[in-house]
Amino acid sequence: MSCNKQKSKGKAPAMIMSQKEEKLKTSKAAEAIMLLREAIYDREGRDRDVLADFGPMAKYDRNGLDLNIEFAAAKALKKDEGLFQQVIDLTRSNMADVYAWDEMEATDELEDNAGRFLLVRERGGGALVGAAQFRFTLQGELHSTCETHQMIGEAVLLVFDVQLEPRVQRKGVGTRLMQLLELVCRKYKLAFLQARVHDGNDGATAFMASHLKGFSVEAASAAVQADADFMADIDFSVFSKTVNKTRAAAAAEKQVKQAEVLALAASIAKMQAGSAAAAPAPPAPAKTLEDTPGAAAAAPAVVEPLD
């Protein structure tokens, strides 16, 4: 018998099932992280320019516009203080009336080194007229409580914001940005393209629901829904589109299997609890004469043999 089997001897089936489920989650997370690493870094370990393979799509010359779309990682963008400030100013201008604007919180989010941007500028290095902020992450980033903070699920491209100057809105620029991000998802075999939309941002909600195909609002996990305090703080919806159907189907199948494992473990535990309650009590030990009251008086006298 191997050491591993000896260690598991005597453990309840529910505990063994739970260990198998944890191994499944660990393997799944490792696979997703490998996909994310490929999307984030090139072979030299530098931030990957995800638009490098989509040059023609990065030029936009429709509806009277002549624009370039460029990639920038947050670390590089912050070094260009003037350009970074333009991103902050554009975000503030569009969003200050949508929700309670917090300059420090918004700046911290834009400065996060995990951030990636598609910057829309007038041709020839002109003024900034738009920006899409996104990250490569795991599906559970926005669906994890402060207590558990579990990074779970499939590898996804998560769009935090798409901001456009009023003069370029409703001219197809936002659609082009989302198309480019979907192409990036497909290239790096990510399962979903997701977008965060703040409550009260009716324009963005209509854009996601009507102008883009294949998106639907994703529900938070059951664990998060059970955390009333965390749910009360959520002021956004997450729109999700399946990009890699094979990975999405595999993810759904794994979730079903995990649910089956949990149901089986619960059933086994219930059966064990029922068996323990129904088991007959062990028989009482036979009483000796010494245990019986009055036994000494009733016992026959012992006749000692005569010498």
Annotation keywords:
Aminopeptidase, 11 helices, eight-stranded mixed β-sheet, alpha+beta, 307 residues, disordered N terminus, disordered C terminus, single chain
Report what the structure shows.
The protein has 307 residues and is of the alpha+beta class. The chain has one domain: Aminopeptidase (3-Layer(aba) Sandwich), CATH 3.40.630. The chain contains 11 helices and 8 strands. It has helices spanning 3-8, 13-40, 74-79, 81-95, 103-111, 173-187, 202-211, 222-225, 228-233, 245-278, 295-298, and strands spanning 59-60, 67-73, 116-122, 128-138, 155-164, 192-198, 216-217, 236-242. Strands 1-2-3-4-5-6-8-7 form an 8-stranded mixed beta sheet. The chain is elongated and about 95 Å long.
Q: In summary, what is this structure?
A:
The protein is built from 11 helices and 8 strands. It has helices at 3-8, 13-40, 74-79, 81-95, 103-111, 173-187, 202-211, 222-225, 228-233, 245-278, 295-298, and strands spanning 59-60, 67-73, 116-122, 128-138, 155-164, 192-198, 216-217, 236-242. Strands 1-2-3-4-5-6-8-7 form an 8-stranded mixed beta sheet.
**CATH-level-2 architecture:** 3-Layer(aba) Sandwich
* Integer average pLDDT: 78
Please mark out the parts with pLDDT under 50 across 5 or more consecutive residues, or reply none: 1-10, 13-17, 143-149, 221-227, 295-307
Helix content: 40-55%
Question: What quaternary form is this?
Answer: single chain
Q: Can you identify the CATH class? A: Alpha Beta
CATH fold field value = Aminopeptidase
User: N- to C-terminal separation?
Assistant: 66 Å
Question: What is the number of E strands?
Answer: 8
Instruction: Report the sheet with the most strands, covering strand number, pairing sense and barrel closure.
Output: 8 strands, mixed
CATH H-level name... which superfamily?
Gcn5-related N-acetyltransferase (GNAT)
- Shape estimate: elongated
The H/E string reads HHEEHHHEEEHEHEHHEHH
Class by SSE composition: alpha+beta
**Rg calculated over all Cα atoms:** 32 Å
Major sheet: arrangement of strands: 1-2-3-4-5-6-8-7
Number of helices: 11
DSSP strand (E) fraction?
A: 15-25%
Please indicate the count of domains.
Answer: 1
